[in-house]
Amino acid sequence: MTNTSISRMPDPTQFVPELNDITAALFRATGNRSVPRTTMSLVHLRAGQIAGNTYLTILNTGFLRKAGESEERITAVSSWQDAPYFTDAERAALALTEATLQPSPHGRERVCDELYAEVAHHYDEKALATLTIAIGQINFFIALAVIGKPQPVSSLADEQWD
Q1: Cβ(55)–Cβ(48) under 8 Å?
Q2: Quick one: which of 8, 1, 42, 45 has its CA closest to 160?
Q3: What angle do CA 156, 46, 17 make, to 5 degrees?
Q4: pLDDT tens digits, residue range 94-137?
Q5: HSE-up of 35 (CA within 13 Å, CB side)?
Q6: What is the pLDDT of residues 34-53, one digit of tens each?
Q7: What is the rounded average pLDDT for all residues in the chain?
Q8: d(CA 103, CA 157)
Q9: Can you spell out the DSSP letters for 65-88?
Q10: How far apart are the C-alpha atoms of 51 and 28, rounded to whole Å?
Q11: What pLDDT is stored for residue 148 in this prediction?
């Protein structure tokens, strides 16, 4: 019989139940509505694409579809820089995500002052703090996703771990 399991490890909350509290706290911190939920999902989708992770890409694509986002917007996240589907605020959030999660050019800051100023132009202090936490949140989940390799799902209600 062929093993159809995709996950490399069982659900980590079986061994570290405190992870549920951490996850809930992160979602509470980023769910304060200072940044639109769609923007959060766009940021998390782009982060999943940067990490090359199917689980995060499918999950956040599912969130965007459920929110009624167009297939053009969802598909264009990977090439957002020249796509006409994003607001200036969304572009700033996507640029901040890329700058944070990708290696910087040699000798340059990942998040330069100009990028920070652009993001701050579109988001007030609370929203900027929330967006920063959201990028850290997805980075936390990237580690779980690329190491543990949970099942690709389009909803957190679906079974993710074998």
Answers
A1: yes
A2: 8
A3: 35
A4: 999 999 999 887 788 999 999 999 999 999 999 999 999 999 99
A5: 33
A6: 999 999 999 999 999 999 99
A7: 92
A8: 33
A9: HHTT--HHHHHHGGGGGG-TT--H
A10: 24
A11: 92
Collect all residues with Cβ–Cβ distance below 8 Å to 162 and sequence separation of at least 6: 5, 6, 7, 10, 151
| Residue 41 CB coordination number (10 Å) | 23
Instruction: From residue 53, give the alpha-carbon distance in Å to each of 11, 24, 120.
Output: 17, 22, 29
Global pTM reads 0.91
Q: How confident is the model at residue 63 (pLDDT cuts 50, 70, 90)?
A: very high
Q: Is the pLDDT score of 1 beyond 50?
A: no
Type of residue numbered 114? E
Both structure tokens of 9: 């490890």
Dmax (CA) for the chain in angstroms is 57
Which of 64, 34, 35 has the alpha carbon at shortest distance from 49?
Answer: 64
